[in-house]
Amino acid sequence: MEHRTLAHAAQHSSEGRAAATLSRRSFIGLAGGGAVLAACVPLAGCSSDLPEAAVQPWRSPERETDTRRFMLAHALLAPNPHNLQPWIADLREGGRIHLICDGQRLLPQTDPFGRQILIGFGAFIELAVIAAAQRGVSVKVDLFPDGAPADQALPKDSRVATLVLGEPGSAPADPLFAQIVRRHTRKSAYANDRALPQTLVGNWAETASRFGLRSGLVSGAAAMDPIRRITREAYEIETTTARTWLESARVMRIGPGAIAANPDGISLNSPMLRALHTLGLFDPMEVPARGSKALERVMERWVPFETASGFLWLASADNTRAAQLAAGRAYVRAHLLATAAGVDMHPLSQALQEFAEMRGPREALHRALGVSGQTLQMLSRVGFATEPRGPSPRRSLESVLRT
Fold it and tell me: Counting CB atoms within 10 angstroms of each CB, which of 15, 42, 108, 227 has the fewest?
């Protein structure tokens, strides 16, 4: 989903490569920070805060008075892979929203069949339904009105769903509505010694069942360690496989200017990385190689992602397109429930990807969780983040509309 870790890997990898490059070039004085400091001066005071324009959609989506725009202003805050936000909302037919997959915002290397993209659409749909209920309006969700994409085809330009609005007063408010603007993916370290509320764990299971899925929670070091090993291996595979790394590199937005201009993709805004990029010492198109110092630093960045109170998983009996959308709806409700309980979530999607090199970790994860013969749709670490993180950038409402 949007909460991918390659952004953090790129930062650490670039700093390691920069040090080696500086040594080779005898860049005198930079080791003391002088040149980096000079490069950093004009970079928005070296703040890592995202530009306001990129996070404005989170601030006040409730200001929309039209019900369909109100729904969409909240739905576009949905988590989604690589934060590509691949939605187009066609409003040209009254009382309906035709939701279309933007064929230019797909991940053919890491998500070759569009499963994760459709999970993101499921989250979008669920937030739209919750927002409509806040206005007292029910929503009938008609999936793939033109037919579902083939199992191994990308859902390029598919009409994923038509949302049909009911009459005013046709739905009660959903208690999770207030959590939509509060839900953020925390990608920092989590506390390892805090137990999750049992009520929340029960609510997660109930939510999964509501959408025809199974869920489970892995907790305790003995049970979590095999999952940590598998997810670490998967991350290394995604990082060192050239075509999957480069797919991510192409949507990296480095610095506030790039992030404001393109409030999607993978945002890189740390002062050090921006300075290195300004000096020409960070090339995101350089793939970390096995055995390299760059890869060592990438894998060091993975260590905080092994901290958690547990791992939450969602699985479906089959892998139909409807099941993928259901997984997205269940996942975002689980995250809203977690937010309401003060608990954080961070998806670790690498080991679930369907590209060829990932087969080993994917099958190992299914065995470790006891769901062989089913389809793992989501795996997230859950717990209590040790430091706050704000929202990810979002495109404006107007940018996703067809009117």
Answer: 42
